[in-house]
Amino acid sequence: MIGIILGIIFLLILVGIGVGIYYFFDKIKCIFHPKSCFECDPKCSDTQYCNILERKCKAAENPGAGCLARQHNQCKGESKCILSSWGAHCSAGQDGINPPGSAGNPPDKHYTALGTKGCSAVIPCPPGYYCKIGSEPCKAAQNPGAGCLAGQHNQCKGESHCILGTRGAKCSAGRDGKNPPGIAGNPDNEHYQALGYPGCGPATHCVPSYYCPVGNGPCVLKKTEGQGCDIVRKCIDGLHCQLRGGKLICVSGKKEGDHCDVNHKCGVGSYCQRKLPMICKQKHKEGEGCPLVGGSYQCMEGLKCHNGKCVKK
């Protein structure tokens, strides 16, 4: 029995010595052929990378997966291994999911993968997302009317801006009051208070055909002909607020040739002549004459009076 035990012990010692000799000569080989210690044999395929610690081929990582910083071959496709505040991760394309260079993703644009922490100026969030303070994962940009951090326009969708109003900072809307500027026919350089949200004021105007009520509440639709009006409740374009039958209501302007004065305004496209007889006259077109001093009121919309003629502003 003792002989069997001693035989087993001797066999284990021989195996240990054999393994030690193998690793010794393996390290000696690295001294004379260092490249061989950083390559896998057989070589890895295009969708794999060589794990230099194990010297084994492994499948390339998806965007967001951890990797060894700057070892871009560990990431799929054109993805790169970029070091962030939360370690090194494989970059994503502009969709935030697939690698750069994949369908619809430019090969040279690298972003933080959605759901992965560590976004920064080095590896920003994909379009339509923003980097939340505190190294949180990328967050979807906000719709018009949603709260945001004043001046941090990247927190808002499209060309929307985060503007500080009377009720805190909110993402601006385009001319339609619903979609961001630059979308659905909205000019990209016009910013308004989103419809249905309070906070309109000097910094956040209401969209055309709406006015800002007392208390800076949600914008209200301007009044139409015959509806009550006052200094706050505005009339739609082309109408003015006038006392009729003891009540202020929205009425249409005077037509050309009608008597006019301060309280009896002319309609759209006409002006009240500032001399006797005070009557409504049609506004002048480009190139037509106007008074040298203060004559712009006689020119059509988009024109001004310059050197006695109506010209483009």
Question: What do these coordinates show?
Answer:
With 313 residues, the chain is mainly beta. It has four domains: 49-139, no CATH class; 141-221, no CATH class; 222-281, Ribbon (Lipase, subunit A), CATH 2.10.80.10; 283-312, no CATH class. The protein contains one helix and 16 strands. It has one helix at 2-32, and strands at residues 48-51, 56-59, 81-84, 87-90, 129-130, 139-140, 162-165, 168-171, 210-211, 220-221, 239-244, 247-252, 270-272, 280-282, 303-306, 309-312. A two-stranded antiparallel ribbon has the order 1-2. It has a two-stranded antiparallel sheet with strand order 3-4. Strands 5-6 form a two-stranded antiparallel sheet. Strand 15 (303-306) and strand 16 (309-312) form a beta hairpin. The longest helix is centred in the first third of the chain and has 31 residues, at 2-32. It is elongated and about 135 Å long. The model has no long low-confidence stretch (mean pLDDT 85).
Provide the domain count: 4
**CA-atom Rg in angstroms:** 37 Å
Q: Structural class given helices, strands, pairing?
A: mainly beta
Sequence of secondary-structure elements: HEEEEEEEEEEEEEEEE
Strand arrangement across the biggest beta sheet: 1-2
Largest sheet: 2 strands, antiparallel
Task: Give the total of beta strands.
Answer: 16
Percentage of residues in strands: 15-25%
Residue stretches low in confidence (pLDDT < 50, at least 5 long) are none
First-residue to last-residue Cα separation: 112 Å
Shape descriptor: elongated
Helix content: under 10%
Average pLDDT metric: 85
Number of helices: 1
